[in-house]
Amino acid sequence: MSEGRVPHRGMFVDGDYHRRNDTFRVTDPSTGRPVAVVTSAGPDGVDTALDAAVAAQSEWAAIDPIERGRILRQVARELKRHVDELAELATRAIGRPLGQSKGLVDSAIGYVDYYAGMTDKVEGESLPVGQTNQAFTRREPIGVSAQIVPWNAPVLLTFRGVAPALAAGNAVVVKPSPFAPRVILTLAEIASEAGLPDGLFNVVPGRVETSQALTTDDRVDQLTFTGSVSTGQLVGKTAIDRVVPTVLELGGKSPAVVFEDAPLDDAVDGAMQAMTMINGQVCFATTRVFVHEDVYDEFTRRYVDAVDALELGAGIDDPDLGPVISEDALAEIDQYVQAAIDDGATVLTGGRPADREGTFYEPTIIEGADDDAAISCEEVFGPVISLYEFADEKEAIRRANDTDYGLYATVWTNTLDRAHRVANGIEAGSVMVNQYAGSRPQTPFGGYNKSGLGREKGMQAVDHYTELKTINVEIGSVEE
């Protein structure tokens, strides 16, 4: 398909699209065929977007918070009219099964609704400092937030940062991944049509030079990044050099711990969700499953049978499992699997690229990998899960924590005191008990160790998009 036969989208700045000569193609990983041509903003485009954001932000911050909430609710209502369109755009870009895309778009709209209700609840505190003095704090908008968003859940991860930033009175400039820019451009367009003032939600597609121009510009007052550890470290260093607040979410190597009294059907279903959600390409995916020796064989049999029944296909056809994002990703996944095999691990099912058009990897279960093997320690980012056998609770906690990451974990047991002990003992930002995906807009999300800095979601997210000011007023002595 030629570039002339696919949609061409410019960057979205100050409420409108702007085309530039520098473009790149977006392809469907299910087929390798192009689905869009998108403008690359580059440094000049970033400059234009930041001018618009700075100009719009002060007026937005001055609006009555209740009115900001009303506008954001209207944005949410308009987004609900476009769920099918947004889901299809996301699926065609990244190959995620269409049903998952619809679910994640619905969840993303929930973020807008949640933070729309918080605009008039960004509160300070009165501080006791004595009878002749009055001290209080207030939270003020931080200014312009630059947000670098990954490709794997573009709608949800955009609004996870954009919604609290706007609710607190800021403007945003979003730099989407080159794999999935079009759906984020459409989000900004819909928000504008719903009445969000121009210049508050700008989108600058592009590659490394666009990100560099955005993160190093003095007009940016706050940085939010979701992605790899290596890139996050670069963003963090830039933020330190500029002394600007930063939120980093940098992935994980999440454990599941399945005890002998676990609800085994639910535990297998949770492991299946980890395998299939976004085709295994999700930051909090369970990739290390520790199973008690008393139920290891039974769990493994059930899990292998369930994975063998998965249907692979193009995301738009809504299969159980779609493709991985690119040829490079496919090759990297296979390198991890083959290295594990060479080191003595056993493939129970899958273990190679699928023999079909597109970048598909067979859903893969591995057992017998050492805890210090690359596949046990590094983020594979694909439909690959490793199984490990354990004997007791202390061993399970120790091995679950034997990682540089600490984003997410799941615990499967019907013993209440054990559930609390293990959840408290695991070093992770979120621990789910007897469920896999239990995260919601009101629950803070972020990681320990190399999984990142700061917390997204919940009321805590607003802290990252505001400055805390203390005001101290001398009111004089009390007259007799």
What report would you give on this structure?
About 40% of the residues lie in helices and about 20% in strands. It has about 475 residues and is of the alpha/beta class. Strands 15-16-17-14-13-18-19 form a seven-stranded mixed β-sheet, sandwiched between helices. Strands 10-9-8-11-12-20 form a six-stranded mixed β-sheet, sandwiched between helices. The longest helix is centred in the N-terminal third of the chain and has 21 residues, at about 40-60. The protein is globular and about 75 Å long. The termini are far apart.
Report the major sheet. 7 strands, mixed
Low-confidence stretches: none
Radius of gyration: 24 Å
Order of neighbouring strands in the sheet with most strands: 15-16-17-14-13-18-19
Approximate shape? globular
State the end-to-end CA separation.
87 Å
Q: Please count the helical segments.
A: 15
The proportion of residues forming helix, as a percent range, comes to 25-40%
- On the 0 to 100 scale, the average pLDDT is 96
Q: Supply the helix-strand structural class.
A: alpha/beta
The proportion of residues in beta strands is 15-25%
What is the tally of beta strands?
21
